[in-house]
Design brief:
Elements lengths: L5 H21 L3 H9 L5 H8 L6 E3 L22 E8 L2 E8 L10 H17 L3 E5 L10 H17 L5 E5 L2 E3 L4 H4 L3 E5 L4 E3 L3 H8 L5 H5 L1 H8 L4 E3 L2 H14 L24 H4 L10 H8 L5 E4 L7 E8 L2 E8 L10 H16 L4 E7 L6 H5 L2 H14 L4 E10 H6 L9 E4 L4 E3 L3 H8 L1 H6 L3 H16 L4 H4 L5 E2 L5 H12 L17
Parallel strand pairs: 3-4, 4-5, 5-7, 6-8, 7-9, 12-13, 13-14, 14-15, 14-16, 15-17
Antiparallel strand pairs: 1-2, 2-3, 10-11, 11-12
GO molecular function: propionyl-CoA carboxylase activity; transferase activity
Protein name: Methylmalonyl-CoA carboxyltransferase
Keywords: Transferase
Length: 523
């Protein structure tokens, strides 16, 4: 038989290469994909295809295999080692991604698996591009022992190094238990899908053994638990397709790294559009409730905004949106929940969001309608002083353009904390319905005039008279403006045009913090 020609030999090798790549994509067990779909879950490659622009994915190390021995591992050496890594584009911009492949070792992390993740994380940091992790793994690969645990350490170290440098997004699409849960916790945003996502440090079996409590996996660490009770998850959706579409939308609002500005977009919504409806949305009576999200919808381009942590600490609203095509972060008290009061959860939620926006050059617009901090023994004992100070620290430390608008109430320390002029807001505005004061007139009159009220023949009439006197002297809409604590009192209908002009003026703002290694924020 004549020897093969060079062309034939190369063709054989190319067929061998394609066979290996097909095996890497399909997996060694043809039924594994069926089992994944039977659980209502997509495969890692299917998820990546939904996340990235069509045909843009370039895989890294698809033929990687582990070198571990013992416990039968030497006989099981599948390609990819249970994680798909690479890069592609979202709306034309580079994004790096890794996705656990639950079909292989249950997505469990071993040494080679971890090294692939380390490599793609290093590439993302070096390239200055966002990193998205699609999590669906059973934790550390027990058969590889401490080598697997060390792999997690390398991931955590890189999460921390990338913090504030590139956007990091975790998408929970399966179980995430034990130490594995700390990587998502170190990233900027966590997305979760109902019924298939679970996160916990110790699972239901351990909880039952230690405490005697019986609870399901979803009851302990399901998507809705972390979106509403713990605050671990920022976004939750009913299915993977919607979830990954929303990840794409979030990426469209974020810069690729901390050296770039967020991407702008053309808007058909005129920057000088008047908001006549605002006069009806916000009642002049400070005791009446309303939904601040309706106000945000009226102020931003096309009424479109992405609310962060919508189900957790709903008394404050944090959202990303655009005004005149430019991305802004919005922090707003929510009178429809707990009257918009600040408490521990709201303070921590707002602080993290402010810090994120500052890290990635996203201007801040703060809408203020706050009656104060929530009083109560539980709040004091659980640390409202140090935990409320987190929001104060975040605003004081922020160097991005900052605009605050007082819509109605702004009382006491909560007024100061909500980006007042005194802590560094670049532009402080107020509506003519504003009440900026140490406290409400009713409470103030009871304190300041308690003796006169007690000695009066008609205490209630005296009290009402003193309330009105206090309002006339200290709580009228122009008191702060007269003292330069508010730059202007504006017609509510002109809020969007005023914000658009102010943001344009502040676009070139430059501010430096004192030279230091890092600050020491309240804990």
């Amino acid at each position: 038989m004549p020897p093969a020609t060079t062309t034939e030999a190369l063709a054989d090798r190319l067929r061998g290469l394609q066979e290996r790549k097909d095996l890497a994509r399909l997996g060694a067990d043809p039924k594994a994909t069926e089992r994944q779909h039977a659980k209502g879950k997509l495969t890692a490659h299917e998820r990546i295809a939904l996340l990235l622009d069509k045909g843009s994915f370039s895989e890294v190390e698809p033929l990687r295999r582990h070198r571990a021995t013992g416990f039968g591992l030497e006989a099981r050496r599948p390609y990819t080692d249970g994680v798909i890594t690479g890069w592609g584009t979202v709306e034309g911009r580079t994004v790096f991604v890794y996705a656990h492949d639950f079909r292989i070792f249950g997505g469990a992390l071993g040494e080679a698996h971890a090294q692939k993740i380390h490599k793609i994380m290093d590439m993302a940091i070096a390239a200055g591009a966002p990193l998205v992790s699609l999590n669906d793994g059973a934790g550390a690969r027990i058969q590889e022992g401490v080598s697997a645990l060390a792999g997690y350490g390398g991931i955590f170290q890189r999460n921390s190094r990338a913090s504030g440098v590139i956007p990091q997004i975790s998408v929970m699409l399966g179980p995430c238990a034990g130490g594995a849960a700390y990587s998502p916790a170190l990233t900027d945003f966590i997305f979760a899908v109902r019924d298939i996502s679970q996160m916990f440090i110790t699972g239901p079996d351990v909880v039952k053994a230690v405490t005697g409590e019986e609870i399901s996996q979803n009851g302990l660490g399901g998507a809705d638990v972390h979106a509403g009770a713990s605050g671990v998850a920022h976004f939750v959706y009913d299915d993977e397709e919607t979830c990954l579409a929303e990840v794409r939308y979030l990426l469209s609002l974020l810069p690729s790294n901390n050296r770039e500005l967020p991407p702008s977009a053309q808007s058909g919504d005129a920057a000088d559009r008047a908001g006549d409806v605002l006069l009806d949305l916000v009642p002049a009576d400070g005791n009446r409730s309303y939904d601040i999200r309706a106000v945000i919808e009226e102020l931003v381009d096309d009424g479109d905004f992405m609310e962060v942590h919508a189900a957790w600490a709903p008394n404050i609203v944090c959202a990303l949106a655009r005004i005149d095509g430019h991305v802004v972060g919005i922090v707003a008290n929510q009178p429809a929940s707990m009257a918009g009061v600040l408490d521990i959860k709201a303070s921590e939620k707002g602080a993290r969001f402010v810090q994120f926006c500052d890290a990635f050059s996203i201007p801040l617009v703060t809408l203020v309608d706050v009656p104060g901090f929530l009083p109560g023994v539980d709040q004091e004992h659980e640390g409202i002083i140090r935990r409320g100070a987190k929001l104060l620290y975040a605003y004081c430390n922020a160097t991005v353009p900052r605009i605050s608008v007082v819509l109605r109430k702004a009382y006491g320390g909560a007024y100061i904390v909500m980006d007042s002029r005194s802590i560094g807001a670049d532009i402080a505005l107020a509506w003519p319905t504003n009440e900026i004061a140490v406290m409400g007139a009713e409470g103030a009159a009871n304190v300041v005039f308690r003796r006169e009220i007690a000695a009066a023949d008609d205490p209630e009439a005296m009290r009402n008279s003193k309330i009105e006197e206090y309002k006339q002297e200290l709580v009228h809409p122009y008191y702060a403006a007269e003292r330069g604590l508010v730059d202007d009192v504006i017609d509510p209908r002109e809020t969007r045009p005023v914000l658009s002009r102010a943001l344009a003026m502040l676009a070139t703002k430059h501010a430096d913090l004192p030279r230091r290694k890092h600050g020491n924020p309240p804990q």
